[in-house]
């Protein structure tokens, strides 16, 4: 048992090191300390709240569950190691351990123990069944050109989730925190739509110039995002607050779309950068370094997305000549 687990963990460390090299050490050196600082600040605030301290282990376990169900090596693990779930349990426990230790340091022993119990249990959750989403395809409410929304909302069962979230936000006993939490959940649903890159052939057909293509993706994505989030914002009861929070929310959606094409077509890189950007932009609000950091993130994603699309389109244009 110990030897296979150790070998698996060494393999995972090598994969993480390779991912870090491909993403770029400079980006990680800039983002990871800020990510760690933002996470620590969020845990400090949560640990001081009687309900928030119990939300911390649930949030970490939910993030692990989402990543676990979308693993790309399910088939490989299932065919090569029947007992692989025990390996994953050790891996996930290791991911949750730093957060649990920090909760212990903040005198939140109960949530820390809960996290150490929940993190390994994630390993026994089933993978996402990709085929089920494509077996029964009804008519979509979204234009076919907005393919991210067509496939993403169908896979997330958003037609059922959206009214449930709206009902929870509008519940008479809910306070102002209810709509805010539903905004976060709906943001994660929308982000999931932009986590999977489309085939490069689709991009080559749709894109003439990188700038024109990105503007079109942003226009469609932000239009649908604004339409779906407007009812949640209306429940805030304050139009200035709704306007400010709505613009901030749509800005996060825009960064998600830019991150997709900045690291297209590598799905792992896309999801990693999207998660880093989301956590840093959400949790560092109010920090003195926030304005210049936001300028760097936005400018970097715009530049990198144009650069990446030019390279992909150039490869697509060069393929017929090489044949």
UniProtKB/TrEMBL annotation:
* Keyword annotations: Membrane, Transmembrane, Transmembrane helix
| Entry keyword Transport | no
> Which stretches are transmembrane?
92-125, 146-165, 177-197, 218-239, 245-263, 275-303
This protein's name: ABC transporter permease
């Amino acid at each position: 048992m110990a030897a296979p687990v150790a070998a698996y963990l060494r393999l995972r460390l090598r994969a993480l090191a390779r991912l870090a090299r491909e993403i770029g050490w400079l980006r990680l050196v800039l983002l990871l300390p800020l990510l760690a600082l933002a996470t620590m600040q969020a845990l400090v605030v949560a640990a001081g709240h009687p309900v928030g301290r119990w939300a911390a282990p649930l949030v970490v376990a939910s993030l692990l569950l989402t990543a676990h169900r979308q693993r790309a090596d399910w088939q490989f693990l299932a065919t090569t190691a029947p007992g692989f779930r025990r390996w994953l349990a050790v891996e996930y426990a290791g991911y949750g351990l730093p957060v649990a230790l920090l909760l212990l340091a903040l005198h939140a022993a109960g949530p820390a123990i809960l996290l150490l119990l929940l993190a390994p249990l994630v390993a026994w959750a089933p993978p996402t069944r990709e085929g089920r989403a494509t077996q029964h395809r009804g008519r979509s409410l979204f234009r076919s050109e907005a393919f991210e929304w067509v496939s993403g909302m169908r896979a997330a069962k958003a037609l059922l989730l959206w009214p449930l979230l709206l009902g929870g936000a509008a519940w008479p006993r809910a306070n102002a925190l209810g709509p805010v939490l539903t905004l976060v959940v709906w943001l994660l649903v929308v982000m999931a739509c932009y986590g999977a890159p489309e085939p490069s052939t689709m991009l080559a057909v749709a894109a003439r110039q990188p700038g024109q293509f990105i503007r079109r993706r942003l226009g469609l994505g932000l239009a649908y995002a604004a339409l779906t989030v407007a009812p949640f914002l209306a429940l805030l009861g304050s139009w200035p607050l709704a306007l400010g929070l709505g613009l901030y929310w749509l800005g996060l959606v825009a960064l998600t779309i830019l991150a997709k094409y900045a690291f297209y077509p590598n799905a792992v890189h896309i999801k990693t950068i999207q998660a880093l950007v989301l956590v840093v932009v959400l949790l560092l609000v109010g920090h003195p370094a926030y304005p210049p950091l936001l300028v760097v993130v936005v400018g970097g994603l715009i530049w990198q997305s144009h650069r990446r699309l030019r390279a992909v389109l150039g490869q697509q244009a060069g393929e017929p000549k090489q044949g």
